[in-house]
Specification:
The chain has 244 residues and is an alpha/beta fold. The chain has helices at residues 2-14, 22-38, 44-54, 59-67, 72-78, 81-103, 118-127, 146-159, 212-221, 229-243; strands at residues 112-114, 133-139, 164-169, 186-191, 194-199. Helix 2 (22-38) packs antiparallel against helix 3 (44-54) and helix 8 crosses helix 9 (212-221). The protein is elongated. It starts with a helix and ends with a helix. Residues 28-38 have a biased composition (Basic and acidic residues). Residues 1-242 form the Phosducin domain. InterPro entries: Phosducin, Phosducin-like_reg, Phosducin_N_dom_sf, Phosducin_thioredoxin-like_dom, Thioredoxin-like_sf. Belongs to the phosducin family.
């Protein structure tokens, strides 16, 4: 059983980084360090030490390894603080770049689109890419909650650039009878040309005074927003802190 676990780990180690927990991050970093140093002229003995540090050992091997005295080579390798910090920074940058590429897939927007006509509204829904989530705020000047929701959209559009945030006045939709002041502000969410969620008089879901964080939490409850880039960065930072 122990041999099977070790074999599985070694197979992962030979491929791409697959361990996301603190211990997995440590092993991935050591692997990255070994690759970085292979391009430099270092003694083969140090490479072997790094390999041993990155691979799991059986319990007996671990006891034997820690019970013997530390060699000069191991001491020098472990105490190369400055060199380790530089290598760790390289590894973190690589992780950030990989994560950014994954999150950056697809179109990016970053601001709120003001739709002027009903035709423009329909065109936005029908012609946008199918992978894009479109959140539309139907509002009117002077209606309670509309200004706060528009302000929230400005923040959310910057935080979720992969989501297309739009707003349109009810009087410009061509269907004002359907969007009377009693149902405003209204929030419509589309994806792939289909309406997936709609919320009328959405301000009633919040306190008298509400902000972008309240709207964000509300949309997240319904699974309408993707993972924020900053959340992924914070997760990586937490793993780094645990590793240290």
């Amino acid at each position: 059983m122990e041999e099977g676990k070790s074999q599985s780990f070694e197979e992962d180690f030979e491929g791409q980084a697959t361990h996301t927990g603190p211990k997995g991050v440590i092993n991935d970093w050591r692997k990255f360090k070994l690759r970085s140093e292979e391009s430099e002229s270092i003694p083969p003995s140090k490479k072997e030490i790094l390999r041993q540090m990155s691979s799991p050992q059986s319990r007996n091997d671990s006891k034997e390894r820690f019970s013997r005295k530390m060699s000069i080579q191991e001491y020098e390798l472990i105490h190369q603080d400055k060199e380790d910090e530089n290598c760790l920074r390289k590894y973190r940058r690589q992780c950030m770049q990989d994560m950014h590429q994954k999150l950056s897939f697809g179109p990016r927007y970053g601001f709120v689109y003001e739709l002027e006509t009903g035709e423009q509204f329909l065109e936005t829904i029908e012609k946008e890419q199918k992978i894009t989530t479109i959140v539309v705020h139907i509002y009117e000047d002077g209606i309670k909650g509309c200004d706060a929701l528009n302000n929230s959209f400005t923040y959310l559009a910057a935080e979720y650039p992969m989501v297309k945030f739009c707003k349109i006045k009810a009087s410009n939709t061509g269907a004002r009878d359907r969007f009377s002041s009693e149902v405003l502000p209204t929030l419509l969410v589309y994806k792939g040309g289909e309406l997936i969620s709609n919320f009328i008089s959405i301000a009633e879901q919040f306190a008298e005074e509400f902000f972008a964080g309240d709207v964000e939490s509300f949309l997240n409850e319904y699974g309408l927003l993707p993972e924020r880039e900053i959340q992924a960065l914070e997760q990586t930072n937490m793993e780094e802190e645990n590793m240290e």
